[in-house]
Each structure stands twice: as C-alpha cells, then as structure tokens.
Amino acid sequence: MILKPNMVLPGLTCPTDEIIDEVADAIVKCLLRAVPGVAFLSGGQPSDRASARLNAMNFRFKSRLAWALTFSFSRAIQQSALEIWSGQNSNVDAAQKYLLHRARCNRAARAGEYVAAMEKT
User: Fold this and answer.
1) What's the pLDDT band for 5 if we cut at 50, 70, 90?
2) Which residues fall within 8 angstroms of residue 107, CB to CB, at 6 or more apart?
3) Assigned domain for 32 exists
4) Is residue 13 part of a domain?
5) By residue range, what is the domain housing residue 73?
6) Shortest CA distance to 104 belongs to which of 24, 47, 65, 43?
7) Catalytic residue among 4, 29, 62, 97
8) Is the Cβ–Cβ distance between 75 and 44 less than 8 Å?
C-alpha cells in the first residue's frame, strides 16, 4: 500500500520558501496526526491465528511503530460468534460470551500481551 498525499507546503504568499526543516517537520507531524493507526482485515484467517499475528507485530516492533496496529472489527472478531449464534435466541448468551472472549484476546494482542493460553480460558 502506498499513501500518496501532497506535501504540507508554505502558502503562496509566504515570503520565503527556504524553510526545508520546518516543511519536513510539518509533513511528518501531519502524517502522524492524520494516520493514527492501521486496522487490518483478517483475510479469513482463524481468529486465534489473527490474534497471535497481531500480537507478534505489536510485541516485536512496539518501540519502532509510528502507528497503532489493530483489527477493523471484522471476521477475526465476529465470525465465530456469528456461527455460534446462528440466528437462534437460545445461542445468544454463548455467542456474546465468545465475542467478549475474542475482544479480550484482541485487546491483549493490540498491546503485545496475547498468549495462546488465553484461548483456553
């Protein structure tokens, strides 16, 4: 993926265009504010693998990430709960319990604190 924005530049009436460092600073500050994070789609991978992979990115690169890495609440969080529910009122509690479980796993993965043992709880 390539993000292709314009640079943040001095206005046409600015008396000088020789402020290279100020322009560079303004561009990077703008990008850091404008792009607060990356929200991944799950791509159809199993929920536990998606959590583990998100966790690995956040754990291994935490000190170097300029952006928050997370999921866009999609299949990795919802799919299994929807399958448990299957449109049946009798399955609502179990589906909600599993959805909460997935949310907790992915919250931990977002912080780089997910461990596979969480799947057993």
Assistant:
1) confident
2) none
3) yes
4) no
5) 20-120
6) 47
7) 4
8) yes
